[in-house]
Amino acid sequence: MNTQGIKTYNASLDKTSLIVTSGIGLLFSALLYFNLTKLPEAAGNPEIIMTLILSSLLMLVIFAGSYLYHVTAYQLTATDLIILRPLVDKSIPLSQLIGVEVPSKKQMSYTMRIFGNGGVFGYFGKFRNDHFGKMTWFVTQRKNYLALRLANQQILIISPDDLQLAQDLLKCIKTDLPSISSPSSLQ
Known about the structure:
Blueprint: E1 2-3, E2 6-10, H1 15-38, H2 46-68, E3 73-76, E4 80-84, E5 90-93, E6 97-101, H3 105-108, E7 112-119, E8 122-129, E9 133-139, E10 146-150, E11 155-158, H4 164-170
Helix pairs in contact: 1-2
């Protein structure tokens, strides 16, 4: 989609993320139902009531937070790459972009989640692997990875449905700055 110089790239959830999201949604729904049905029985026992209420709130916060911060799409403007999310978008100035790479499966293997979401509405947060080191993910699928290197040495990983975004981002890199090596599929 192109509206006045703005290009939008879809970000679909992969099958694993859909299964995890559905499974966690069903599990949390069942646990919430259980908690609600146990509240009348717990009358007169404040510790049990607080436990039921706090565990219910925790589940709601986790699920709602995962939804509100999940990636819905990526937008490329003349000045920024915008990661669209329901609550607050993340804007990355193109002037900070010094490299774009389509990593191989081997480069993304043995990736560990440090702090973040590993499947509910996508994969986002802090991750690490041997090839890139520390990374921040804004990913919806475990394919079509794009690694973005910023001037501050931060690595961002995104996963648009259309890898044309890689070509479009490469055009935005200042030519006087070093960039991550581009795989032959981008040339």
